[in-house]
Design goal:
The strands form 4 sheets. The protein has a 7-stranded parallel β-sheet with strand order 3-2-1-4-5-6-11, with helices on both faces. The protein has a 3-stranded mixed β-sheet with strand order 12-9-14. The chain is built from 11 helices and 14 strands. α7 runs parallel beside α9 and α9 packs across α11. α1 links the parallel β1 and β2. It is globular, with a radius of gyration of 19 Å. It is an alpha/beta fold. The structure holds nicotinamide-adenine-dinucleotide and UDP-4-deoxy-4-formamido-beta-L-arabinopyranose (WQD). The site of nicotinamide-adenine-dinucleotide has 26 residues, from α1, α5 and β5. UDP-4-deoxy-4-formamido-beta-L-arabinopyranose binds next to α7 and β8.
Amino acid sequence: MHVLVTGGAGYIGSHTCVELLSRSDRVTILDNLSNSSLEAIRRVEELGGGRVNFHKVDILDRTGLEDVFEQNIDTPFDAVIHFAGKKAVGESVEKPLLYYHNNITGTINLVEVMEQYGVRNLIFSSSATVYGEPASLPISEECSTSACTNPYGWTKLMIEQILTDMQFARPEWNVLLLRYFNPVGAHKSGRIGEDPNGIPNNLMPYITQVAIGRLKQLSVFGDDYDTPDGSGVRDFIHVVDLALGHVAALKKFTDNPGCYVCNLGTGKGYSVLDMVKTFSEACGREISYKIAPRRAGDIASCYADPGKAARELGWQAQYNLRDMCEDSWRWQQQNPEGYGKQD
Ligand code: NAD
Ligand code: WQD
């Protein structure tokens, strides 16, 4: 199978490309490297034991996109996994047009060029953020999706709608909307992992940077939620499990065409304080933290009903919280500055 992976140099994309390469798929990455580096692609090749065909292209660049499809016309793409997008919630509140333009216009460009070249199998990276404040737990795919709390979340929901409408009009298309819960962890080798720009917003990279001494102390945002220990509860999922979810999803394309939505989560909720404790045990160091006020826009609890992915994709998460912490720590320890400035 020849798979085009947009955003394949990024955190989830790089882990997915390793899994694809190691099962002998042909992999082409398209990425503008706005939030990633060539070094990640070199390491993907090292871990996957194969070569990646890389194009430094922006999905907003229509001609650049067409060139990628044109250059691969003799070995056309069987499927596209579309990770490329901006993902910083806070930045999306400050720069909404940048997010709507990059994520939505970019996706429309991609889909139009796919149609032009007759490539009609698409996996899209959606997010549990589309559920907003969930009405009930665990969150199944049937839960309502109309109350996003930030422009980033809206881009995901709007793209889901656009792709659903497009597939309805073109029933020969296969569209899979995968809603990820909270990806953490890193490849077991410690060679690839999450490399956020600046001070991390997300919990795991913040904790790893406290552990390595780059940051002083974690602020735990709220200890008065209606949860077992008062801190927020999330469905943390190992990024390698998530990558394997995409591999399983690709098989779906051999079945009947349609537009499917599927959660990718573990089904288990752990609190922020559970994470701090487990990480501390995994790295053998105290994680300094203080209780701080709730963060605006946060919800108390969020975890998946993972049943549909098990039934329909034959996939379920394998790694536990301790694995996630150990692997994130190995990546951080071996790469204290992330990928650095090798490019
Ligand atoms: P990431 O930032 O590490 O990867 C995204 C990649 O897309 C980067 O390599 C970036 O350079 C590239 N990119 C961005 N805009 C582009 C453009 N216009 N043209 C070409 N390339 C572009 O993010 P990630 O964590 O790997 O997330 C991958 C996808 O999954 C994103 O769409 C994200 O919204 C979604 N997602 C992420 C999470 C999460 O917590 N990490 C959760 C749910 C969904
Ligand atoms: C997790 C928990 C925080 C940092 C975000 C996006 C979502 C998706 C995944 C892309 C919360 C607490 C955090 C810190 C803390 N991304 N926390 N101190 O907010 O669940 O989801 O990433 O689609 O769209 O919103 O993840 O890692 O930021 O927070 O106490 O320094 O950790 O309050 O309870 P979140 P997160």
